[in-house]
Amino acid sequence: MEQNNTATPRQRWALYCITKKDYRNEILSKEEAAKLIQELGDPQYKRKNSKKTIGDELLDYLKEHIDEMYQAFLGETGYKSILEDEIPDVNGKKQRFAFVGMGCGMTWLKYRKSKRATEIDEAARKYRGNEVLQMIVKKLPKKDYNYFKKIGCPVEAIWYQMQNLQLKYYQIVRDFAKTKGIEMRIESHLD
């Protein structure tokens, strides 16, 4: 039998759903239960008070190594060339294109399937095109960013396509995985 001011069965069930702790035998008032539900059910509260995921740890590790990736980016963009069509157009002119970097490629991680390895791989692919790219863009002077865009080789394309940049990025991810006891190897080929 429920006392007047004790938490209701619905409140206890809500607390169980949030925390996976059984509250049926806890002495808890309706007000205390409501406060707990509000605090524990808040995504910001969970984020502040929960343990970091392996993906969160990877992002921290990538932030610690952003200077290495930025230096690799600067090194790669030091190679500039002009590509020219072999066959002229109908007017007899050959089209010319700016090219930055040593060469385009595809790079990926190979590993024995496990939950943690898969989490690292998925987080690495997500961060490469989002958070890490934005960190590179923030470090690059605006005039350089605009220059690459103007010549038809935007920073985003350079970051995604250049094999050497992919290799540097995935070497850092692989090194992180090693700190977690996970062996990964890098596979890559020119595109």
What is the compact description of this entry?
This protein has 191 residues and is of the alpha+beta class. The chain has helices spanning 9-19, 30-41, 43-49, 54-64, 66-77, 115-129, 131-139, 142-150, 155-161, 163-179; strands spanning 80-84, 96-100, 105-111, 184-190. Helix 5 (66-77) crosses helix 7 and helix 5 (66-77) packs antiparallel against helix 10 (163-179).
Features:
alpha+beta; two-stranded antiparallel ribbon; elongated
**What is the alpha-carbon Rg in Å?**
26 Å
* Count of beta strands: 4
Oligomeric state of the chains in view = single chain
Helix content, binned percent: 55-70%
Quick check: average pLDDT?
A: 90
Supply the number of helical segments. 10
- How many individual domains? 2
What general form does the structure show? elongated
Stretches with pLDDT under 50, minimum 5 residues: none
